[in-house]
Specification:
InterPro entries: ACAD10_11_N, AGP_Transferase, Aminoglycoside_PTrfase, DUF6285, Kinase-like_dom_sf. The protein has 14 helices and nine strands. It has helices at residues 12-23, 62-77, 109-114, 122-136, 152-162, 168-179, 222-228, 247-256, 264-290, 297-316, 346-359, 365-400, 407-416, 423-441; strands spanning 26-31, 39-45, 48-54, 85-92, 95-101, 189-191, 200-203, 206-210, 217-219.
C-alpha cells in the first residue's frame, strides 16, 4: 500500500488567492500563534473580519472539520456564544478548512487573569462559564450526527498504552480512577471536551465566544466541569475554575443555567481524569515531533512538559506536596570549557542564543512565540547537561530497590499490584523521579499548589 499523499505547506499568498475566490478580496491574512493541532489565520474579506481554521497537511480530517462546523451551529442555537460559521469544506490548498467570523476579545490566559482591563469582569466569570456549560449540555448527543461516544477512561487508557511507554505516575492515577469511579453520572449530552481558559474569548463584558470544538463528543456533561478545573488551566491562579473563581461558583452558575451539578466527589474524579487526559494529550502532541511528522519546536518541548502533568496527577491524588526548588541555572559563574576549546564555553554560548531568542525584535507574533519556546528548550538542555548524570544514577538506584531495570518494568509492577505491600515506598520513588524530571524541565512548576 502506498503512503498517503501529504499536501505541501500553503503560503499566505496561495491561501489568500483561494479565499478570495470564495469570499471576495482578502487583506491582512496572517497566521496566529495559537492552535497546536490546526492552523489558525486571521484576515478580512469583503468588509468582514474572519478566522480561517485549517488542518495541517499531514493530518487532514474532513469528517471532523464538518462535524465541528455542525457543532458550532447547534451550540449557537442552544444559546452558547460561538463565532458564526461562514463557510467550510474539504479542500483549501489540500486540506479541510472552516471560515468563521472573528469576534473581538482576548484568549491569552495570563492577560485574562492579570490585566487590569479584565478586573471588573473576572469575579463573575466562573458563574457565567457554569451557565454557558448548562446551555451546551441541554443538547442531546444526537443533536449533531456521528459524534464519537466512547468510555473516556478506557479511551485514555488505550491511547496511553499505544505509546508503549509505561509511566509509573500514570499507573498510580489509572488505578485510582478505576477504583474510585463514581456511581452517579450526568445525563448523556454533547461534551465540548476542551472548555477551558485559553479556548474562551473574553472581553470586558464577559464571554464572547467558546472556541476549538474539535475534541467534542457525546458523553457525561460533568467531564466539561472537571476539565475546566484542571490545574493546568489556572495558569498560576489559586482559583480552581479556570483561574477565575471557585468550584462552588462554577457549580452555582451551572445550576442557575438549568444544569444538575455533580457531587464534590464526582467533580474531583473528573478533575483527576482531566489531569490524566492532559498528560496523555501532551505526550500525543510530542509524538508529532518524535515520529518525524512535524519538526515544530513547540511539539518537541511538549514532550518535556509531560512531567508537569505527572506532578499535577500526584498532587491531585494527595501523593505529593508543592516544593520550592532553586533553578540550577541561577547559580552565578560560568562552567569551565571542556578540552582544548576556547571561550566562551558551551553554557555561555547557549545563554547567548537564548538571550537573542528572547530579546530579538520580531514582528511576526507566531515567530515570537516560537522564539520563547526555543529559549525554554535551551534552558532544559542546560539543566540536563548539568544534572543528567546525577539524576540518572539516583533513578537507577530507585528502580533497583524494586528489582526493576527501567520505568516500564516498574510501571507494569504498579499496574499488577506487585509492590502493594510497599505502597509508601512506591509513591516516594515515583514522586522523587518526577521531581528530578521537573528540576530539569521547569523547576518553577514544583511550587504551584494543587
Amino acid at each position: 500500500m502506498s503512503a498517503p499523499t501529504i499536501a505541501p505547506a500553503a503560503t499566505a499568498e496561495t491561501l489568500a488567492a483561494l479565499l478570495a475566490e470564495r469570499l471576495g478580496p482578502v487583506t491582512g491574512l496572517r497566521r496566529l500563534s495559537g492552535g497546536a493541532s490546526r492552523e489558525t489565520w486571521a484576515f478580512d474579506a469583503a468588509g468582514r473580519e474572519l478566522i480561517l481554521r485549517r488542518d495541517p497537511p499531514h493530518t487532514p480530517d474532513p469528517v471532523a472539520m464538518a462535524r465541528e462546523a455542525a457543532l458550532l451551529v447547534a451550540a449557537a442555537e442552544a444559546g452558547v456564544p460561538v463565532p458564526a460559521v461562514v463557510e467550510h469544506g474539504p479542500d483549501l490548498a489540500g486540506t479541510p478548512y472552516m471560515v468563521m467570523e472573528r469576534l473581538r476579545g482576548e484568549t491569552i490566559p495570563r492577560r485574562l487573569l492579570r490585566d487590569e482591563r479584565f478586573a471588573a469582569v473576572r469575579p463573575g466569570l466562573a458563574r457565567e462559564l457554569g451557565r454557558i456549560l448548562a446551555h451546551l449540555h441541554e443538547l442531546p448527543p444526537d443533536a449533531v450526527p456521528d459524534l464519537p461516544a466512547l468510555d473516556p477512561l478506557q479511551e485514555m487508557t488505550d491511547w496511553y498504552a499505544g505509546f508503549e511507554e509505561p509511566r509509573p505516575a500514570v499507573e498510580l492515577a489509572l488505578r485510582w480512577l478505576a477504583d474510585n469511579r463514581p456511581a452517579e453520572a450526568g445525563r448523556p449530552t454533547i461534551v465540548h471536551a476542551d472548555f477551558r481558559n485559553g479556548n474562551l474569548l473574553i472581553d470586558e463584558d464577559g464571554v464572547r465566544g467558546v472556541l476549538d470544538w474539535e475534541l467534542s463528543h457525546a458523553g457525561d456533561p460533568w467531564e466539561d466541569l472537571g476539565w475546566l478545573c484542571v490545574k493546568a488551566w489556572r495558569f498560576g491562579s489559586p482559583l480552581a475554575a479556570g483561574g477565575f473563581g471557585t468550584r462552588e461558583e462554577l457549580l452555582a452558575g451551572y445550576a442557575e443555567g438549568g444544569g444538575t451539578p455533580p457531587s464534590p466527589e464526582t467533580l474531583r474524579w473528573w478533575e483527576v481524569f482531566g489531569t490524566l487526559r492532559w498528560t496523555v494529550l501532551c505526550r500525543h502532541q510530542a509524538e508529532r515531533f518524535l515520529s518525524g511528522a512535524d519538526d515544530n519546536v513547540e511539539f518537541a518541548v511538549l514532550g518535556r512538559r509531560v512531567c508537569e502533568q505527572e506532578h499535577d496527577l500526584l498532587l491531585s491524588l494527595g501523593l505529593t506536596e508543592p516544593v520550592t526548588v532553586a533553578d540550577p541555572l541561577d547559580v552565578p559563574g560560568e562552567p569551565a570549557s571542556v578540552g582544548p576549546h576556547d571561550r566562551p564555553g558551551a553554557a555561555a554560548l547557549i545563554d547567548a542564543v537564548r538571550h537573542y531568542l528572547t530579546t530579538a525584535e520580531v514582528a511576526d507574533e507566531r515567530l515570537r512565540f516560537h522564539n520563547r519556546v526555543g529559549a525554554a528548550a535551551l534552558r532544559i538542555v542546560q539543566r540536563e547537561l548539568l544534572l543528567g548524570a546525577e539524576h540518572a544514577a539516583a533513578h537507577t538506584a530507585r528502580l533497583g530497590s524494586f528489582g526493576c531495570a527501567d520505568d516500564a518494568e516498574f510501571a507494569v509492577g504498579i499496574r499488577e499490584g506487585r509492590f502493594d505491600d510497599r505502597w509508601h515506598e512506591v509513591v516516594t520513588a515515583v514522586a522523587a523521579s518526577v521531581v528530578d524530571k521537573l528540576i530539569v524541565a521547569n523547576p518553577r512548576h514544583l511550587a504551584t499548589p494543587a
